[in-house]
Amino acid sequence: MSRGSGKSVMSNLLWKFAERITAQLVTLVVSIILARLLEPSHYGIISIVTIFITIANVFVSDGFGSALIQKKDADSLDFYSVLFFNIGFSCVLYGILFVTAPFISVFYGDGYEILTPVLRVLSLRLILSAVNSVQQAYVSKQMMFRKFFWSTLFGTIASAVVGIFLAYKGFGVWALVAQYLTNTTVDTIVLNRTMHFEIKFIFSFKRLKTLIPYGAGILGTQLLITGYQELRALLIGKIYSSADLAYYDKGKQFPDLIVTNINSSVGAVLFPKMSMEQDDPIRIKATTRMSIRFSAFVMCPLMLGMAAVAGPFVRIVLTDKWLQCVPLLQMFCIVYLFQPIHTANMQAIKAIGRSDIYLKLEIAKKIIELVSLIAVMRISVDAIVISMAVLTAAFTFVNSIPNSKLLDYKFSEQMRDILPCISMSLVMAGIVYVMGNISIPQLPLFLIQVFSGGFIYLVLAIMTKNREFSYIYNLLKSKIDK
């Protein structure tokens, strides 16, 4: 990788991180306020509804979007062909969800009648996502990640105002529905304005057909991943209660908030960059390695640190009514710990054009996960999450196997790249956890733990002369000096 190329990747990566972090800080604050205003059962209803919307959204947002980015010579005809196909298909999917909504309510039983109107209204996001997914593919293709910043920021703030206002006025679950719809609507409108994306009524089925072979592999893979993830939530909501599902989702929310934003930032920047270099394995390996090291430097302390302070965090932020989610939150931190390796390896495989390998890997893993889920699903919700943590650790090795041959980037080399960050994070988290035994009020103790954890990690990074810390420090210093 050339020096200039590395700077371009890092610059876009930092813009993507800025967009995600800013948006999610606002989302986090809103989530905390809403969790105090609403009951866990309200979140349980939304969690059930989003199961079906999320699965349907895979058909709209995945596959063709990735194919547009991966195709070297994609032009406006390709983009508009996908856009109009997505809009038409999303309308069909909305119709299916509209008709089946009452049957879904019956499936969950008494007390879930509100699922029908909620699902029918919230499913309108599918049509908006059909447009937004093509917008995002275009921005990613052109490496214009500054555009994401403003659209996401305006959408998040507008939806926050709407959600909090309606929750305060006692609208319950409808406050969450309005928040989600507002976010997607404003995000799509603002992104369209900032990128000057003008609608042209052109379409080519021939162009669409050329994207199908690659897009089908990505779509199939995402359906497996998303379908299995939502299957767990569906079973928890059916076997246990909406409150149990809310605790599961809330325990997952905070580590997922961090990891999803890091992974989406890394993936959004790396995939188009690697696609440009798909004929040069050496450059792709260098980009993959940089991604793994940088993501691990950021995410390892966040995950292990959050696990160490989970108890006081939930008490202070969400109140005691959410304490049942504490052990789930800690386990989810472990589940997500190795995601940087997974993301970087999968993006490299996709960029080379081997969506077939991507799909085969996920089929094998999902078969194992499904067997595990069936074995533990009636034991407890905790048992379901523990099985996830064990399998995630094991799959870290599985995900690296293809790139051992494709890029000569072996699992042992990947482990050596992230081991320093994991070691520093374990030391930091251990000290922070022990500090939790100090007999002082919860809020001061929590703040002391957080700031001490950050300070300890930075000191360790300086002492060990960590490469990622040095790079970030020099980059920020150069920006300030200017």
DSSP strand (E) fraction? under 5%
Helix content: over 70%
Mean pLDDT, to the nearest integer, reads: 76
| SSE-based structural type | mainly alpha
- Uncertain runs: 1-7
Rg, Cα atoms, Å: 22 Å
The number of distinct β-strands equals: 0
How far apart are the first and last residues' alpha carbons, in Å? 26 Å
Q: Main β-sheet, in a few words?
A: none
Explain this structure to me?
The protein has helices spanning 3-37, 40-61, 64-70, 76-108, 115-122, 125-141, 146-168, 173-195, 205-239, 242-276, 281-308, 310-317, 326-335, 339-352, 355-376, 381-406, 411-435, 442-463, 467-481. Helix 7 (146-168) runs antiparallel to helix 8. The protein is built from 19 helices and no strands. The radius of gyration is 22 Å and the shape is globular. It is mainly alpha-helical and 482 residues long.
Key features of this structure:
19 helices, mainly alpha
What's the short story on this structure?
The protein has 482 residues and is mostly helical. The chain is built from 19 helices and no strands. Helix 1 runs parallel beside helix 7, helix 2 runs antiparallel to helix 4 (76-108) and helix 11 (281-308) runs antiparallel to helix 14.
SSE inventory with pairings:
Layout: H1 3-37, H2 40-61, H3 64-70, H4 76-108, H5 115-122, H6 125-141, H7 146-168, H8 173-195, H9 205-239, H10 242-276, H11 281-308, H12 310-317, H13 326-335, H14 339-352, H15 355-376, H16 381-406, H17 411-435, H18 442-463, H19 467-481
Helix pairs in contact: 1-7, 1-10, 2-4, 2-5, 2-6, 2-9, 2-10, 3-6, 3-9, 4-5, 4-6, 4-9, 6-8, 7-8, 9-10, 9-15, 10-11, 10-13, 10-14, 11-13, 11-14, 11-17, 12-18, 13-16, 14-16, 15-16, 17-18
